[in-house]
Amino acid sequence: MRALTVEPRRAASARVEEVDAPVPGPGDVLVEGRLVGVCGTDREIADGAYGAPPDGRHRLVLGHEAVGRAVSAPDGTGISPGDLVVPIVRRPDPVPCASCAAGEWDMCRNGLYTEHGIKGVDGFAAELFTVAADHAVVAPEALGDLAVLVEPASIVAKAWAQVDHMAERASWRPQVALVTGAGPVGLLAALLARQRGLETHVLDVVTAGPKPGLVADLGATYHTGAVTDACPAPDVVVECTGVGAVVLDAIAHNPPGGIVCLTGLSSGARTVELDAAALNRRLVLENDVVFGTVNANHRHYLAAIQALGVADAGWLGRLITRRLPLAEWEAAFRSGTDDVKVVIDVAA
Known about the structure:
By secondary structure, the protein is α/β, with parallel strands linked by helices. It is 27% helix and 25% strand. The protein is globular.
């Protein structure tokens, strides 16, 4: 079968090649791949920045945002042949830590977890793949290929669940949200903010292309420029850029008791000056919360499916701006000016 593989930490080593078809083990679901989303993590692994192959191997099958159809599944799992299946990315560590033992593998504390297509276990950019039945969720047929958005939506479902938890510490409830970055994660974060009934603002650098219209059609407001110009006093900021200056502005310009959730990752290539004492004083005196979040567990995938299920399918479809066959993976890995989400059709 064909698969997109890479030798982690070796730049320019990615290629589509013939590999052995996976053999499902006890408890595994065998899945016929349909679509795989491309994100910055995939590009960075292909560029040699990080990643790890399975034990005893030199190459890793890429791809962690996926949807496919079940070919076979163990009895009693609730998964049947033909079901739309979305695989969960992270797998718990073998020790396990307290979080993984409780099913909270997204909060792993000892770093011994593995991640499909990223760290220690093959991903889903293949014509066939396997996933443990308890690490797969069935998507409704109505979602169809849009189920490829479940994984990025799970990230923001987790983010908002944590924001909701943080908000319980006070008697007031958030009314205004600012999302920084209008990529797939940012737009999905804005979608969930609107589903919560929040006044929503989205900040990005582009002035043309599909992003302003996508934001407007959510009933949100699109901005360019500085954080303070976009929304002077947001109750909640979901930061999705990882850009140091934007992160600091988001932290420094929310109102007392504000909540800032960091989902973006910085390249670390730029240095930003910071008055740590002044920032510390502000956070303490204003009871602010700043926290980071990454990955998701089973309940967040289910929450993502629910959120996507009640969203406008036409709007969701516009998030997928390019769909390319597996043979054209290199074009999929090159960012386009008007890209939001690029997907690879592994079945084409």
